[in-house]
Q: What sequence folds into this?
């Protein structure tokens, strides 16, 4: 299983930009076409003649990208919009050719750059399953074999013979994803398709993708949902401005990306001890936001508890270490501070520490929460680490598709939103009040 | 797990081979795309299959009145209605297939930019649905032969060959035009015009016997001439068109092969431009 499934070497793609870049004039086209065979006869390599309209308006959407992927490996690809992720996927899917470089792929490749490609509104669910399946590269027999499974996964059994133009957008998306989820390639290329449907279905899709990953298939996975990428992939490459910036373990790269590109992320890791915040006494190594199930996340359901976990090395044996967090909202208001004071009475031995602070569910208000990590020691009082806005996460109230939360739809004022105990009693109206009724 | 397949992705240059084997491996997709076009048309139209008959039949009626009766155009001794209807069948197929195939790429932009499959599939699949119309209209032709008391000749066995040549001619032209259409949208305007002119220089409303040699052979460079005279010969027993059919087959083959290579050459830019 250690075979190299995909080898990418110096891949680059140049695009022409500008108003007239896409349509050549007929005259130019013909002169190129006529000249080409003669250029060939003279033993010259044919280089497309640059049109005067876009001679200088070229840019590299991707350049000098190299990496290898072993069979069965799941690779996450992250980067800003327009960074070149989709170009890379399009080249690997053979949709467009690279301008330079080589990519070798061993095994059957299937790509999923969009759900429902080729779906036709007039056709029924059943007909679209066959059409879409064929477009995605499935054989008719294969589709027939998996048909019931596809329909069941999409939860559209009752409407399978209804034209999809009558489907709700949710049903449509579920059906489209379901067809794609039943592909059985050796190498699967997936772009941003999980960001569809309601949360419940997203979770189901993510589960399906994990299943695919466990079947020994090689997977490329692009998503803006960072928690999805880190959950699925152990390895991530970060692409920015067409270049491969970082290639490494998922948590590290994701943290770096959130930090450097998006701003503050939910995971921060300092791989180099010398670059980590701290001093000779204490070094901070990582700060993470995670849920009860251990999953790292940058989105937290308001109702659920969330943990902020910091890992640090104590290098000096004589210190009494107190880790603490300060929580800020987007406006910069400090909501509260919490410290692990139970440790404040004894000296901390040398070692790698992990301190976790649990924030209960139903406390935080909706919005971004920025967390500052601080490590100090008492007696003498020294601040060893003060990492301002080390991590951030978003508290979400109404998860789309889940209406069970509450029926109050107005905005809540206030910086926290605890769920408190209420009592309300009712008695019969006193006679003087009843007069006014 | 099948790891026997291997792809090397890199920039291609100049002319590239036409991968017939890959096309064959994707035959089911060709079928599904053709089936989709047929199904959708029947779902969207009220008359559905009837259109395949109405169109050539009404054209034949108009031709018979204006060209046959009023202009007294000769028809090689065959009743004019069946003379023109026999020609209208392959011609209508050709015109429809040409229109569909030259638009096949531009009309499938979303597929091209999202999924890989051999791009040749699109024009190939687009010339197939019109064959169904041809078959339906052909039944009417058989009825007309009974009506006019015309007995089929042994040459009728050659009809499938003639039909294949027609498909090749339409597909060959369609390949050129569809590839050009991606880069030069002028093609969209050229096709209806081209079809109109092409019909005038094809013996649909008149017999090719109106032309004398050497003009007749020169005229036969139009590959649809041989096909249509071939249809009349096979079904109605007119003069065998001999050299015209050979010319037609040769030119259609040339069109198809050159079209396929040009298409493959232009293919690499489709996803970027479309």
A:
């Amino acid at each position: 299983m250690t075979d190299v499934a995909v080898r990418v070497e110096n891949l680059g793609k140049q695009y022409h930009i500008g108003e007239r870049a896409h349509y050549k004039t007929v005259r130019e086209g013909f002169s190129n076409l006529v000249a080409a065979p003669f250029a060939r006869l003279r033993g010259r390599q044919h280089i497309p003649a640059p049109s005067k309209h876009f001679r200088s308006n070229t840019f590299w959407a991707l350049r000098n990208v190299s990496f290898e992927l072993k069979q069965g490996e799941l690779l996450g690809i992250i980067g800003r919009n327009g960074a070149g992720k989709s170009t890379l996927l399009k080249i690997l899917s053979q949709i467009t050719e690279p301008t330079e470089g080589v990519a070798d792929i061993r095994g059957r490749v299937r790509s999923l750059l969009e759900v429902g490609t080729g779906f036709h509104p007039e056709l029924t669910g059943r007909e679209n399953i066959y059409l879409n399946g064929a477009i995605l590269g499935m054989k008719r027999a294969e589709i027939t074999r998996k048909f019931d499974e596809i329909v069941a996964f999409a939860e559209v059994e009752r409407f399978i013979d209804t034209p999809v133009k009558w489907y709700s957008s949710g049903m449509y998306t579920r059906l489209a994803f379901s067809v794609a989820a039943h592909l059985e390639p050796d190498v699967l290329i997936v772009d941003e398709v999980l960001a569809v449907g309601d949360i419940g279905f997203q979770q189901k899709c993510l589960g399906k993708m994990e299943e695919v990953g466990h079947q020994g298939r090689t997977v490329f996975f692009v998503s803006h949902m960072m928690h999805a990428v880190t959950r699925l992939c152990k390895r991530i490459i970060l692409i920015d401005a067409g270049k491969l910036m970082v290639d490494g373990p998922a948590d590290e790269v994701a943290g770096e990306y959130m930090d450097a590109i998006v701003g503050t992320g939910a995971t921060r890791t300092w791989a180099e001890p010398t670059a980590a915040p701290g001093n000779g006494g204490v070094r901070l190594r990582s700060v993470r936001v995670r849920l009860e199930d251990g999953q790292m996340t940058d989105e937290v359901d308001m109702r659920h508890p969330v943990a902020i976990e910091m890992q640090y090395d104590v290098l000096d044996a004589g210190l009494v270490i107190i880790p603490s967090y300060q929580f800020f909202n987007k406006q910069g208001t400090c909501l509260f501070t919490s410290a692990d004071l139970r440790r404040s009475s004894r000296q901390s031995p040398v070692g790698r520490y992990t301190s976790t602070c649990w924030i209960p569910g139903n406390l935080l208000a909706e919005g971004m929460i920025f967390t500052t990590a601080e490590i100090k020691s008492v007696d003498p009082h020294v601040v060893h680490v003060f990492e301002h806005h080390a991590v951030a996460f978003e508290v979400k109230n109404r998860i789309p598709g889940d209406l069970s939360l509450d029926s109050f739809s107005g905005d809540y004022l206030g910086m926290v939103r605890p769920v408190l105990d209420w009592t309300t009693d009712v008695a019969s109206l006193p006679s003087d009040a009843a007069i006014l009724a | 797990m099948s790891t026997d397949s291997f792809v090397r992705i890199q920039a291609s240059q100049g002319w590239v081979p036409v991968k017939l084997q890959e096309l064959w491996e994707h035959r089911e997709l060709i079928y599904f795309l053709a089936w989709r076009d047929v199904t959708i048309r029947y779902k969207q139209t009220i008359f559905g299959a009837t259109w395949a008959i109405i169109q050539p039949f009404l054209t034949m009626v108009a031709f018979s009145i204006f060209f046959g009766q009023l202009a007294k155009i000769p028809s090689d001794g065959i009743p004019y209605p069946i003379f023109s209807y026999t020609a209208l069948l392959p011609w209508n197929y050709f015109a429809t297939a040409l229109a569909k195939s030259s638009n096949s790429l531009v009309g499938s932009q979303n597929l091209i930019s999202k999924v890989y499959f051999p791009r040749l599939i699109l024009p190939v699949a687009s010339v197939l649905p019109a064959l169904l119309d041809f078959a339906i209209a052909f039944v009417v032709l058989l009825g007309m032969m009974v009506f006019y008391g015309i007995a089929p000749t042994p040459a009728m066995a050659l009809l499938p060959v003639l039909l294949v040549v027609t498909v090749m001619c339409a597909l060959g032209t369609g390949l050129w035009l569809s590839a050009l259409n991606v880069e030069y949208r002028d093609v969209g305007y050229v096709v209806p015009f081209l079809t109109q002119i092409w019909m005038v220089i094809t013996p649909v409303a008149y017999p090719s016997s109106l032309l004398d040699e050497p003009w007749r052979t020169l005229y036969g460079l139009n590959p649809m001439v041989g096909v249509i005279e071939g249809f009349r010969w096979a079904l109605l027993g007119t003069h065998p068109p001999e050299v015209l059919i050979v010319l037609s087959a040769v030119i259609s083959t040339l069109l198809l092969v050159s079209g396929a290579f040009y298409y493959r050459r232009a293919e690499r830019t489709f996803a970027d431009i479309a």
